[in-house]
């Protein structure tokens, strides 16, 4: 029981740490016995501040590709992803009705599993379309 409590506490701490504001990184020069070690400045990713005031965020939180897409296109993508998800779930249900399909696992098809990811994609593109509409795009 204590292992379970430890795991749950660790998971909760890890989830809470995702919402802690980040502080700017300090650049330090590291010295070793044979000279100065070069900082991997090209590999350091600079995190932009995505905090906003008001009802909706700016378009830049959608990333470099979706921030340039109009809300109508994102809405159409959302409908397409939702259609794929519903079709995949429906076809998986049809395959489950075959005799012995649940016992053998023959109802699991990779393309229907892949289509099932359309649900979260539909939700994400729906939210992106809402953000773009609120920002006038």
**Estimated share of beta-strand residues:** under 5%
Helix content estimate: 40-55%
How many extended strands? 2
Determine the mean pLDDT: 81
Question: How does this model look, in words?
Answer:
Keywords: Membrane, Signal, Transmembrane, Transmembrane helix. The chain crosses the membrane at residues 69-89, 110-131. Residues 1-18 form the signal peptide. With 137 residues, the protein is mainly alpha-helical. It has a domain at 68-137. The chain is built from six helices and two strands; from the N terminus they run H-E-E-H-H-H-H-H. A two-stranded antiparallel sheet has the order 1-2. Strand 1 and strand 2 form a beta hairpin. It is flat and about 65 Å long. The chain starts with a helix and ends with a helix. The model has no long low-confidence stretch (mean pLDDT 81).
